[in-house]
User: Fold P-type Zn(2+) transporter from Neoroseomonas eburnea.
Amino acid sequence: MRRYLLLAWVLFGLAAGGVAHLIGRPEAAPWIWSAAALPVAVHVGFGLLRSLLGGRVGVDAVALFAILGAVALEQEAAAAVIGLMVAGGEALEAWAEGRATRALTDLIARAPRRAARIDGEAIEEIDVAAIRPRDLLLVRPGDTVPADGTLEDEAATLDESALTGEPLPVEFRRGAELRSGGVNAGAAFRLRAARDAAGSTYAAILRLTQEAAAARAPLARLADRWAVGFVLFTGVLATAAWALTGDPLRALAVLVVATPCPLILAAPVALIAGIGRAARRGIVVKGGGALERLARIRTVLFDKTGTLTPGRPRLAAVDADPELGREEALRLAAALAQGSTHPVSAALVAAAAARGIALPMPETVAEIPGGGVTGMVEDRTLLLGAEGFLHAAGIDTRAGFAIAAQVAAAAGSVAWLAVDGRAAAAFVMADGLRREAPRTVRRLRALGVRRIALVTGDRAAAAGSLGRALRLDQVFSDQAPADKIAVVRAEAAAAPTAMVGDGVNDAPALAAADVGIAMGAAGTAAAAEAGDVVLLVDRVDRAAEAIAIARRSRRVALQAIALGMGMSGVAMSVAAAGWLTPLAGALVQEAIDVFAILYALGALRPGTEEKVPDGLPAEAGLDERYEEHAGLRQLAEALREVGESIGTTPGAVPDLSSIESRLRGELLPHQREEERALYPEAARRLGGRDPMGPLIRMHAEIEALADRVAVLHRLAERDGSWEATAPELRRTLFALEALLRLHLTIEEETLAELHGPHGHETRSAR
Assistant:
């Protein structure tokens, strides 16, 4: 406010002096203009003194000497214009910083201060500081969620745009973990607080924003050092112009146009603008220093679980004793898994539920931490766990399971099932790639990151397959926490390095990197301590976006400094030559200041390398088609199982009928709907001559194979035709499975950009 009052005073003085001239009182004008300029000189003088006491040479010395020199040389109008330049520059800086930090101040302004706590039948209004874990809170429409907690009602709709940058409301189901800071965009709901307000997500975000606003960036400090040299250069040039010509007005003109506002204002404004824009995208950068380091990153290291993968295993394949069968093996394993909280157990239960398998209740279940689960199901003794768990019980996992053993060596983890003391099935678990992970790696390459590696504690086989899928430069597997730190330090010694991890298990490695990027969506309070950058959205592609924003902000800052100071240098030369009066010089310098600051604000806009296609409208049905992909992958698994079951006798005919029915009822309608609504809209967004052509061609091939399955099925049902038809039927089923899996993967990759910034998801308890 003081900056704006000072500006108003100078504007009033300038106008009053002009009026004095117009009404025939020119002798009063110099006094009025001096009165307008001298308070600015006093203000600048106090600022210069504070800088000197703080150990920095104040760069406003040039402005102070220019005002005092103009008054001394009876150039009062020029002195008032210089005062306007200084006061206007500070007011413009305040406006620019306010615009640049709008996203940060919006976060702070939305901080909840009151909450409604349910106490029996009564509802009481309390301060958020009074919230305690296990409190039952009522979140009314329009309220900000005051603390992290669990949704107690059937559904809730939250606007999390201030946290994540996602514009669409997000739906949550009963039991979902809600983060503080979201705004209730639906009906009122009850929330069971998991922690107090001070320890919740939003409080951690506010601490980060305050750190970000207070920190001085190295580039801003570098600008201070440049400014000292600039002040010395200005003094030498002004003295030389006066000494060579004997005209003190030339020296004054040099001082007037030499005020280094572009140098001292442009860098902070651009960097704060970058921090603000990152915050709007759900990326909290802990200060300008972190943003600058992020802009120089040339090596990126990723953790695996929870970073490049969702961290939630799923059932990828089943191998079972033929006498037991795959479906029965899954039924028994999932039944036993109901008594365990391990993620693998949850994946088995989910896989059985997806296949519609009814599960009996287990008995005498016992879970051995780090080993497995034992129990009784339908009077059968079951063991479910890792290979070593079965070995400890004296059960040989190799007997009859040569294929599963090979899969276990080449893929991810394998859960083994033993029935009545004999190995009966192996369940291959996979923690698939995040949908946005391949695009993240490609974008990092496009941004100039020269080396991308994986650093994980997982086995070499599992980590290697992920590294090949993402085309990473190197994979460091079997890494203990101390080993990860050593890898990060070795990479950082060669080039500026960023480490991307979950912010909890990888905290030491994040701290060892030049920039630690924490995936903090599920635990921001912990991640905030470890990372220099915290991603509030559970999407790894925001790491690449953070680097893009940082590079643009730093580039804009340097360009604003170079352009502003270049123009000031030209103006100084013109003034020294006597072609620019002090009054005209003040007006020129004011224009240069405005230009430099407005140019620095360009960091608020995305650069050309950051632009992505617009998201698809809801009527295109992208979310619905993606949800159907899970069922189609189960269909692909069924195609493989039926193909493997085809033998010399027509025992698979009933399964073929089910497969054919699913092809006609699930797959083909899905493809028709994509071509009707989704593909035309996607083609318009992606551009190019025919971006969806390859996918439509794959649709045609899938339909041809589905027709072939139907024809072969009818032929196989004829008497005596099975033996001749079975080999071709098996090949067709395998070909259809492979093509369907490939098509789903390519389609998701092609449409990923259209789903990203504008997409949404429905979340539930996990």
The longest helix spans residues 541-576. Residues 523-527, 756-766 have pLDDT under 50 and may be disordered. The longest strand covers residues 422-430.
